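Intended use. Records like the one below are meant for learning the mapping from a protein sequence to its folded structure. Do not use them to infer anything beyond what is encoded.
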Amino acid sequence: MPNKRFGGVTLGGKIAPIFFNTQEDSGSLPIEVDVSRLEMGDVIDVLPYDGKITKNGETVAEFQLKSDVLFDEVRAGGRINLIIGRSLTAKAREFLGLPASTVFRLPTAPAATNAGFTLAQKMVGRAVGLPEGQGVRPGTYCEPRMTTVGSQDTTGPMTRDELKDLACLGFSADLVMQSFCHTAAYPKPVDVKTHRELPAFISNRGGVALRPGDGVIHSWLNRLLLPDTVGTGGDSHTRFPIGISFPAGSGLVAFGAATGVMPLDMPESVLVRFKGEMQPGVTLRDLVHAIPLYAIKQGLLTVAKAGKINEFSGRILKSKACLT
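Structure written out for the chain above:
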């Protein structure tokens, strides 16, 4: 829980992006590593700088961190703390006429290439101020502008606490929307309290608060989103049909709403191409379901937990249809 509980180490064969982000915000160290040789009760040594896990003196797994900046995030007690501290340090040193600080680890830029850009890379490029037609390469650290931030009710109270900790008196994102998707039908006493107090907190800072019973946030965002823009949202509320969005925990939702930007390591993309003729009765949902089916057939996705393969995890899914 960012700003409430800090630290820890998470080991997982694959850590979903939204949970990976929350780990970073909490100052935890998320490590994606093969855990098949680890058993309950094992006493192990995790050597993050060496990229090894040892048990009884024997190396049982090797790994590579997503970025060396994770070390700084852990030391700072969270990614948001690091971003704010790094920014304040840079501004203070600039004011004092000092050179840029060498204390912080900086993200490694990907190798230059003449390859074209995907639509997602161009949209993020526009959000960081690149010229028209230029994009952000996978692996690049950037802070795109958030035009839309969605907050849902089960994490809304945590986001509110994060906003208080950030001393946020007004939102910088163009649209900040709070919904009550999950708790409107059968509210518990704590939900009733949230329904009564949270809307005013959001609206007083320039956001939009739906009323309980207004519906799910997805349908509202579908109506209000600006095309080709970048946004974020808590939980699964990040599916922007005419824009692009990246998942976030409560801390990052608050940061995006308060500052109008969010930290992002640009993900890779996976292209899925549909060819042929649409058959009678086939719907868009059928096409969506066909994606994992054919990924399983090609060995890009496995169902079993052991040796799990998921080509889509942590990547942007880009579909292209050549249908008649």
